[in-house]
Amino acid sequence: MKVKLKDIVVSEVNKDIYSLSSIDELMSSIKLVGLLQKPVINTKTNHLLSGHRRVEAVTRLGWDELEVDTIDIDEDDEILYLIHYNQTRVKSVYSILREYDFLKNYYKKNKERLGLKGVILRGMIAKDIKMSDGQLARLLKIRKSSPDSISLIDKGILSINQAYILTQRNEKEKKSRTIINENWNTVDNTKEFQFYQKSSNIMDELEDESVDLILTSPPFWKLRSYTDNDILGSEKTPEEYVENIVNHLYEECYRVLKNSGSFFLEIGDTFINGNLQNIPHRVAIEMNKRGFIQRNSMVVKRSNPKPSSSKNNLTPTYSMMFHFVKSLNYNYQRTLTKISSNTKPSHPPRHRTVGNGSIKSTNPYIPNEFGKNIGDYIDEDILRVAVSNQKYSTDIQHPAQFPKQLVWMILNSTVYLPFIHKNYSSKVLDPFAGALGVYEGVKWFNHNLKSNIKFVGYDIKKWF
Fold this sequence. Notes:
Elements: E1 2-4, H1 12-17, H2 23-33, E2 40-42, E3 48-50, H3 52-60, E4 65-67, E5 69-71, H4 78-85, H5 93-109, H6 121-128, H7 133-145, H8 148-154, H9 160-176, E6 186-189, E7 193-197, E8 211-216, H10 238-256, E9 257-267, E10 271-272, E11 275-276, H11 279-290, E12 293-301, E13 318-325, E14 336-337, E15 350-353, E16 359-362, E17 372-373, E18 377-378, H12 380-388, H13 404-416, E19 426-430, H14 437-448, E20 453-459
Helix pairs in contact: 2-3, 5-6, 7-9, 10-11, 12-13, 13-14
């Protein structure tokens, strides 16, 4: 039948669920080939059930009337038909969730009339909107716990599964948090383990030059919410963050670190308006200006990087770790990884004269008979091999996966191997102790290798 455009009513529900996109393209198509599919209206209310974009397009083209298909249903049932008529439409996540909301209310309101007692509504609604029940459940979880991710999904920055993974991570962090105690004295204290529930910007509990190793990963800027009221990591500008994190770390860490000690700092980078900020290197440069000597910049490949569906740049999969010292006379012994059994010299060993005039045969292809030094790009395979193939103890096999193996390697080179034959109790500090990943490494060494390493941790919340 033919109806006047002015008589067609677009319901508020229709406007709320579906956006009017690409109208200009549709107008061009209608000009060229005409209106190929009729809109659908409810004759009882004149409400438009299908063809919102088509009606808008012909209205802009100046039409007064058009041919429509009709259906005669109660107004209460319009939402069900509206959604079914739009099943083939490409929808935003927002539209899908609004469809869910309206259908849920509709089925609840009409449960007895439709005979839906005992029926699981979410599964039924998933069929109505042509989506798997599992995907719908993920979307609902994302909206509840990480609503900001919905727009990222619609923009193509995150997939539904990636946003769901991030939501799960955030929830686990929140569950692990406990309320800060008013009494910020020592929370736990044993011979091996000390933990102070307070900020590490003042570590009065530690004497000057009393720590052999500092190993930590502070809050990254604009990447994760560590507590509800933290300032560190949520600054407005990268410059503010760099200043705050360097001020926080430098004075106390430099004071408590021995001249023979090492400071390993892991930190990640951040994009702002598409521009990578080079946060780690800014921090490293400032630490160097304050007096620390930088021995290495290590690229640490992460096994669980933050998901990204960016279409015009690579997915960030690593963090930076910097090795700082106060002097070049620091305790360190390399953790070696095995040389491949396939390594074959391309020509015979050469001979050269050494200091006392004697001739010594050397092989330039195998720098150390016990293994080779690890490079500054560190991934899971390198760490696993390094951990499980040490000459001094062939039985060593750290059970944890990366990044705990990274902790193991650093402990091994700085506070275990240098003191393996000495009756010495080394001390390890983590100023952002978090879930005690560093302590787990210390505990493993003490239990399995009978070492005598003490751990001191600081954090404003007890996460463990």
